[in-house]
Design a protein that fits this description.
Helices cover about 75% and strands about 0% of the residues. By secondary structure, it is mainly alpha-helical. Helix 9 (about 240-260) runs parallel beside helix 14 (about 370-390).
Length: about 400
């Protein structure tokens, strides 16, 4: 093969078509590098929420986080379903990373002073993704084209909406962005629920589950950052403040144990309804973990207070409750849910009871150290219950690694 022919194949080979799933694919170093850019993006918006814990701050965080996750989801799913180990795919991933780096510059104040710049940069990111998905559509089999065309149309509409939002005020821009997040998810959910399974061209794989786990690791890192930032902000550290930080960090440990022992690396049933819920239930899970990380700063800053401030109490306890509810929804569509009913059905009930208990703790607003302790105990109780059920069903949880 000549150099010219080799370069043409390396950079001009079309992406894999729908249905050409690589079952034994492992996550590449390039994908890990790509995910690292999202560490910066999530850190920027989490820092803003940590500085302004309020209901409006939580709403801003949720919407911008949703946009960021939609971008990550599109880039990740394209590589999972259609990517190759070639120069074309690498070039597009690095192009996305460059745009995402610029996006991170405006992420912290996306809903205020930097909203226009954030919107324009995000539209550029979506435009690259449209080009990539269009390249698949051009070479796809006839049975996959209707779905691919709808998906492309949804992305184009999202680009138009985001561009239009660049000239709006805070409230209007936030409403448009929220509509983009909800609409992007609804489009895929409706399509996958109404399409026969053999016409989807999508199948959950081990590498897909691994990418979700890696993103959860990213947002769990925000909890660690939140604890460190909170402790650094206190001029005279005392035992109670440090203990509050450590107890807050244990919430992240509880998240990790429950997610990776009973959800991470486990695949859903392959029907369209189960698959689509598994795909998108990861968004509220990641959102809840990220919000909990932002809540750590305020929790530690008020460690000496007799009661946790109401916004901080609801943010942290609400994040735990939201995570547990999202985990219950995810577990219900796992392939193991029916096979290991003796474990997963009681665990689902325990997660929902734990969510109710977490909300009760948030409502009570105990002292910060006690609030963190009670949330820790809820997570420990859920995992201990699940572990006991695991022993009864003689099932060994997979090593998260």
């Amino acid at each position: 093969m000549t150099l010219r022919a080799g370069l043409r194949r390396w950079f001009l080979q079309p992406p894999r078509p729908h249905g050409e799933v690589i079952e034994d694919r492992t996550v590449s170093f390039l994908e890990l590098f790509y995910d690292l850019v999202y560490v910066v993006l999530v850190a920027q918006i989490a820092h803003t929420l940590a500085e302004h814990v309020s209901w409006s701050g939580v709403l801003d965080f949720a919407v911008v986080f949703g946009l960021i996750w939609i971008g990550w989801f599109n880039g990740t799913q394209f590589h999972e379903l259609h990517g190759r180990q070639d120069g074309r795919n690498r070039s597009f991933i690095f192009l996305q990373m460059g745009i995402l780096t610029v996006l991170a510059v405006f992420a912290a104040h996306a809903t205020t002073t930097d909203g226009e710049q954030f919107a324009l940069t995000y539209a550029a990111l979506l435009s690259v993704l449209v080009w990539q998905w269009a390249s698949v559509y051009r070479t796809d089999a006839a049975q996959y084209r209707p779905g691919a065309l709808r998906y492309l149309a949804g992305l184009v509409v999202s680009i138009g909406a985001v561009l239009a939002s660049s000239g709006m005020g805070h409230s209007g821009r936030l409403a448009v962005w929220a509509a983009v997040v909800v609409g992007s998810i609804a489009l895929v959910v409706v399509y996958m629920l109404r399409t026969p399974d053999d016409s989807l061209g999508i199948r959950a794989t081990a590498s897909m589950a691994e990418r979700y786990g890696l993103f959860i690791i990213i947002v769990l890192g925000e909890v660690v950052f939140g604890v460190v930032d909170g402790l650094r902000a206190v001029e005279d550290l005392d035992f109670r403040t440090v203990a509050t930080g450590v107890l807050g960090l244990c919430i992240a440990f509880g998240f990790w144990w429950t997610y990776f022992d009973y959800v991470g690396r486990r695949l859903p049933r392959q029907d369209g309804g189960s698959l689509v819920l598994w795909l998108y239930s990861q968004l509220p899970i990641a959102l809840a973990v990220g919000a909990a990380g932002a809540g750590m700063v305020s929790l530690i800053e008020h460690a000496a207070d007799a009661r946790t401030p109401e916004p901080s109490s609801w943010l942290l306890a609400g994040s735990v409750a939201a995570l547990l509810i999202a985990l219950a929804a995810t577990i219900a569509v796992l392939a193991d849910y029916r096979r290991l009913a003796g474990l997963y059905r009681p665990l689902t009930a325990a997660l929902l009871l734990g969510a109710a208990a977490a909300l009760a703790v948030g409502w009570a607003r105990p002292a910060p150290w006690l609030l963190a302790t009670l949330l820790d105990l809820i997570l420990v109780a859920i995992w201990s219950f699940a572990f006991a059920r695991t022993l009864r069903t003689t099932v060994v949880a997979p090593e998260p690694g």
